[in-house]
Amino acid sequence: MHPAETDKKPEEKNKKNEALDDFTFVLDSVDLRQYVPYHDTRIDFSRLEKEIPEKIRQMRLLASGNMTNIYDFTLRKARIFYVQAKFMEDYEEDDLPWNEEVRLYAPSYQDLSNKQLRGYFTWRSRIRKGEYEKNADAFAYIYIFELLNGIGVQSPEESIEKLLEFEKKYAGETAHSMLMQRFIRQWIFEFAVVNGMEKERLLCYADPEDLKRDHVITVLKEPEKYENREIFEAMCAVAGKKYFSSSVVKKLGKEGMDYFAGAWKFAADHALLNGRNLFDKCFGTFGKRSFYPLNGTLYYPKNQERSADHALNECRIFSYDPDSESWYLASYRKTVAGTEAFSEFMRCADRLLRVYLKTGRELQEKQDEKWAVPLINSFIEADRLAKEEAKKVKVSIDFSNLNKIRSDAVKTCDSLLTEEEKTETADEVLTEKTEIPHEENLQKSPEIPLDATQLEILKALLDGRSVAGIIAKHHGMPEICADSINEAFFDEVGDNVVECDGKEIVLVEDYREEVAHLIGSLKQQILDKSTLF
Hints:
Blueprint: H1 3-6, H2 10-20, H3 46-51, H4 54-62, H5 73-87, H6 114-128, H7 137-148, H8 156-169, H9 178-194, H10 199-205, H11 208-221, H12 228-239, H13 247-252, H14 254-270, H15 278-283, E1 286-291, E2 310-313, E3 316-321, E4 326-332, H16 340-357, H17 373-391, H18 399-416, H19 419-431, H20 439-442, H21 452-462, H22 468-473, H23 478-493, E5 498-500, E6 505-507, H24 512-521, H25 523-529
Antiparallel strand pairs: 1-4, 2-3, 3-4, 5-6
Helix pairs in contact: 8-9, 9-10, 11-12, 12-14, 14-17, 16-17
C-alpha cells in the first residue's frame, strides 16, 4: 500500500468504495434470431463410391481375409500382396493416369490411395503394351514384385525375361534408376536360385564381381592346378595391383611372377599356423550361414519343398531346408578384398625376394608381417638348394663307343685325302697357334645408352643444380627426359633413378652413389660422346 493511503481516515476510504459502486458494465446485445439453427446432415458418399471400380473395391476387402494367422509382419504383407495381385492379374480396364511421385519403401497395393491405385493399373496396362513411360518409383517396384510372384507370366523363366526387359527399357534409361537396376539384377539371380534353375542360368545372372572373387579364392585354394601367371594375378587381386610394379616383376618379368607364385604354393603346402593352414588363416573356413533371398521385396514363397544344393561354384553353394523353411549359403567366411593376413604375406614376400634376387631398393620390415618371414625364407632356401643342384650336371659317357666313332672318322677322312693334301694338313697343324683371350677382354663394362643431353642432365643433378635450363636449351620435355633416363638405367638399377613432377627432374637420393659410380665407370665412353668430363 502506498504510504499516503495509510494516513487517510476510514471515512475517506468508504467514500471511495461507494463511488466505485456507481459504475455499471453493459455488454453488446446480440440478436440470435438472425442465425439458422444447426441440424445433423448426412454426407453422401455415393458419388465417391461410384469413382472406385468394383474390382478395386473387392481387392481391398481381400486384405481383411484369413491373414491374421500369419504372425510375421513381412510374410503377412507379402501374402496379402500375392493374393491381391493374383486377383488383379488381368485387370486392364482403368484409365486414370497418375503423374506424381509416391515415396514408399517396399510398396504394396494397400499403401496406395484409390487414385494412386487406379493410376498404377493404368500405367501397368501401358507397360504391358510396351509403352515404358516414366512414373513414380513405387509403381515400378510394385510391377517388379508382381513379376517375382509370377503375376502376368506363365513361368519363372518368363518372369526373368520380363524383368530383364524392364531393367533395360525402363530402369536403365536414367541415372536416377541405377539403384533400381542393381536391385533388379540382384533379385533376378536370387529368384533363379529359389526356383532351382540350372547352374548355367545361375552363372548368367550372378554378379560378375562375385564370380571373379570366387575364381580368385579357387586359384589360391588349389594353386597346383593353375599356371604361375594366373596365381600371381589372383594374388594381386587380393593384395593390390601395385605388385605388378614390384622391382622383382619389373626386372625379371615372368620369372618374377613365378617367384611370387612359388612362394605362395610352397607356403600354402607346408605352413601350419596354430593348427590352421595358410589358406584358412587368410580366407577363413568354408561354412554355412543364413541366406535371405529377395530381401526387401514382397515375394511370397510358394511350394518350396526342394532340399538339394544349388552350387554356383566351389566357393558358393545355396541350400534350402524345408523343415525350418530357411535358406543357407555355404561360402568362405572372409571376403577377398583387403584380407589383412594375405596382404602381410604378400608384402613380406616382396621384401625378402628383392633382397634374394637383388632387384632393387629394399623395403623396410614391418612388425605385423614377421609371422610370414619363416615361410618365405624356407621357400628361398629351397629355391637356392634347387639351383645349386641344377648346376651339378651329371654326364655319362661311354668312352668305348666314343673311341670307335673317332677311329672311324679318321679312317674316312684319310681315305678321302690325296698324298699332297695329307702333307699340307700336317704342316698346318704344326704351325697353328691357339690364341688365348686375355682376362681383361672377358670383362665387360656396363653399357648404358645415354646421349649427350642425358649425360649433361645427370651431371647437373649430381652437382645439385637445376636442369630446367638444359632441357629448355635442347627443346625437350621434362617427363620424356626423365622416362628415357630411367629406361636407360633400368637394366642396371631395376628402378627409377630420377623423378619428375612435370616441371623439374630430381635425382632419387637412394641411387645417387650408384648413378655416379656407373657414369664414372663409363668415363671413356662419355669422353667419346661428350666433352663434359
